[in-house]
Amino acid sequence: MTREKTGRGILMLLMMVVVLSFGAGMVFAADPVSKDNASEALSLADVQTGLQYQAHVSQQGWQNPIPFAKQDQGDVFAGTSGKGLAIEALRIQQDSNKLNPAQLGIQYEAHVAQRGWLAPVSSADTNGMAGTVGQKLAVQAVRMKLTGTEASRFHLYYRVHVQNYGWLDWACDGENAGTTGFDLRVEAIQIKMLAADSHFVGSTVRPYVDASKLNNGSVRYAAHVQQAGWQNAVQDGATAGTEGRSLRLEAVRMNAQAANLPPGIKITYRGHVQNSGWQAWKSDGQTAGTVGRGLRLEALQAKLTGPMAARYNLYYRAHVAYYGWLDWTAGGKTAGTTGLAYPMEAIQVTLREKSQGAPGATAMPSVDAAQVAAGTQVNYRAHVSGIGWQSRIANGRMAGTTGQKRAVEAIDLNLSGVVRASSVHYRMHVQKIGWQGWKSNGQIAGTTGRSLRGEALQIKLSGTAAALFDVYYRVHAQNVGWLGWAKNGQEAGTSGGSLRMEAFEVRLVRKGSRAPGSTARPYVKMVPKSPKAFGWMPVSPTCICVDRPHQTLKAYVNGREILSTPVITGRPGMSTPAGNYKIRAKQSPSVLIGPGYRSYVRYWMPFIRNSIGIHDASWQDAKGYGGNAYLIGRGSHGCVNTPLWAVKKVYRTFPVGTPVYVR
């Protein structure tokens, strides 16, 4: 019994061993190594063999597919470059016999013009595509990512070639590639698959540009200021430079290197510099202007280059001496002044979408000398006896009246237009008062309510206006009519004759240009024929006047008395002849020869032939000149005996031909 039981036990044990061995053999046989089994790890070669991509291009249609296996064979891409053609659709296809979608696939989508982001599609979808066909709508951006159980073992890289930009950087695993908000087409695309643990060679800094993410802080700029040097850079419309300190800008620099700007974008700029004019264009933080030379920066131009210029404006404005802040400008136009020698003192710069418009007024971003000349005028009006104030007029029109025997009693003037830091100054010669003090910029010269006639006026400019213009003016005087044109502070009208000023005209003329008319005799200063009885008469404003009854000689230059001296004229029976003469000659020294005398003189100026003239008389010096000396034996033979100091000044001041009036 025991031996029999033992035998059966051994047999059963052997049978169990056989069964277990057979069962184990069936399991291994049912699990052979297969690429279709989801539990087996994929190689990069497996993935590259099972994927390809192709583009639908405007005017061309579908191009031939590009296998992922060719990703390392040079510069392979789908689409075109340099032809201006848009990718309208993208297709990524997967061979399911070679690459199980459950293990690895690609989900991709496109941002299309006028449509935005379309629904994602899968590489496993044989007929799938991202984009449109037959609608002429460009793809503007793409994004794609890996799916499946093996997705974490790989990275998907892709980049696009965009209109105006060229190739952007590489995107990876679901990131956007391309642009949105610019309406720029994608023209080409590259896709690469890499193992997760491999090193990717290529830039991934900026694969995508979103217009909505750009902001004003993208532009940085700095100013070099008189006495201070380079200031810290500022951005986003902040002020570079100073205000209210009268410190000139000497240089500026700008750049557009902030991370939120599109790649390749540039700001170019240049300065208008004292004594030099416009410099060459600068960029990328280079210096526009000068450093260490003490030269003022007078104006600035700046502009954008690259893709951003189509959608954005770079606005800038200048703070200028005498003007303050001028208005904003863009697109390479001038901010500041030219031809006026005014320094810029500060700038502001900002970047804005064109749809936003300018950050402020744009009417007057710059001023140049020609603009000032064209836009500036002198305005004036007259207060007329019996009428009162007339309406204000400008630039050469007549203020006052003619033919009505009315006097101009008061005037006021001002400047208008683009000229700054300028004034017009004026004064009147008034009955019973004479020359008043100077007035300016709308103040009243003359009188009102007192019935006092105006007789003459003077007008002059200061500041920028004086550098750019000559101011001409003329007077219509009682009994005389229109006198010649005076300019820049000269006297116009009459004085000393009780003649009313009846009208006047004023004109601004570019500096150095011709006068608007004759400049002969703009001012008439009256001198008496005799002390009481014979009234007054006009004379040349530059002349020598001999008053026999008062035994005086007075000299005038442009109506202004420069000399008055007592003299001794001809004695009774040989009196100095009255009349209007001219200096005929000048001689120094000279010897005067006559009946019974021979006299040495230092200065000799004959005005009647070579016999009667003006000269010094050393023999008269001891007893002096003037009074009644000519009546009591000290009178001359007809000449005008003059103190040496006075005749010397007359000789040196007045040329041959100067009028001599003897009364």
Automatic annotation (TrEMBL):
GO terms for biological process: cell wall organization; peptidoglycan-protein cross-linking; regulation of cell shape. The active site is at H615 (proton donor/acceptor), C639 (nucleophile). The keyword DNA-binding does not apply. Residues 542-663 form the L,D-TPase catalytic domain. The keyword Transferase applies. One of its GO terms (molecular function) is peptidoglycan L,D-transpeptidase activity. InterPro entries: ChW, LD-transpeptidase, LD_TPept_cat_dom, Transpep_catalytic_dom. Pathway: Cell wall biogenesis; peptidoglycan biosynthesis. Keywords: Cell shape, Cell wall biogenesis/degradation, Peptidoglycan synthesis, Transferase. One of its GO terms (cellular component) is extracellular region. This is ErfK/YbiS/YcfS/YnhG.
